[in-house]
Amino acid sequence: MATTQATIARPTAGPAEERRAVVAAARTVFAREGWTHTTVEIVAEEAGLEPGAVEHFFKDKEQLLLSVLLDSAASVAAALTVIAEDHLGEVSDLEQDLTALGRAWLSPLADFPEHFAIVRHLGAEITRLPGGVLEMWQTSGPRQAQRELARRLERLGDAGLLDIPDSGHAAGRFIQLVAGGAVQASFHGALPLPDFETDALITSGVADFIRLFSPAATR
């Protein structure tokens, strides 16, 4: 007696899944190859799709870069917002809490390695990038994180712990003094520093920041 054998169809990815696969592949390729050497064909191969599938969602490489960069920059900014709130939501020891914030502020370098690999490529390819890319990245990423940090620092000013006439300026100085040295020395996380060196840079930066914005400094 003949038997029928059931055939189980393998589900195919829908448009949303395909788009996510394209974005994930593009992030990997841009992190590895940079803007100049990335092509739609390479992204498609990384995603396991035909080039036409990539072009269905993104009309060209520029649009693909913007999507990837703005998405990952927003994710980093969101992570930094949580970090700022966690460390400055309730301050018991100003120096210790700012030092802990400085250490945590560097954690996205390890948590979002592809994003910062792309950032390193952007620095090297700045003259070749499409117009507007850097401005849009700065707005959705670094400036957003700085604005959220400014809001938390303003609370410290309101509490009399710091003298903060301009919270945006204070946030920029914190990032520059406390995190900037380690970010630059590690080339945005490409060459992680020894813990003792990171701690020394953060401790020194916090001391400089407190000296700049201490209420006593204005008397």
Describe the structure.
The chain has helices at residues 15-37, 40-47, 51-57, 61-88, 94-105, 108-111, 113-124, 133-140, 142-158, 167-185, 195-213. The longest helix has 28 residues, at 61-88. α2 packs across α3 (51-57). With 219 residues, it is an all-alpha fold. It contains eleven helices and no strands.
Any key phrases for this structure?
11 helices, Tetracycline Repressor, domain 2, Arc Repressor Mutant, subunit A, 2 domains, mainly alpha, 219 residues
Give the gist of this structure:
The protein is an all-alpha fold. It is built from eleven helices and no strands.
Q: What is the H-and-E element order?
A: HHHHHHHHHHH
Integer tally of domains: 2
Instruction: Report the major sheet.
Output: none
Rg measurement, Å? 22 Å
Shape label:
elongated
- Helix content bin: over 70%
Task: Indicate the mean pLDDT.
Answer: 91
Which class of the largest domain in CATH terms?
Mainly Alpha
Q: What is the terminal-to-terminal distance?
A: 100 Å
The count of β-strands is 0
The third-level CATH topology of the largest domain is Tetracycline Repressor, domain 2
Q: Report the structural category.
A: mainly alpha
Topology (SSEs and partners):
Blueprint: H1 15-37, H2 40-47, H3 51-57, H4 61-88, H5 94-105, H6 108-111, H7 113-124, H8 133-140, H9 142-158, H10 167-185, H11 195-213
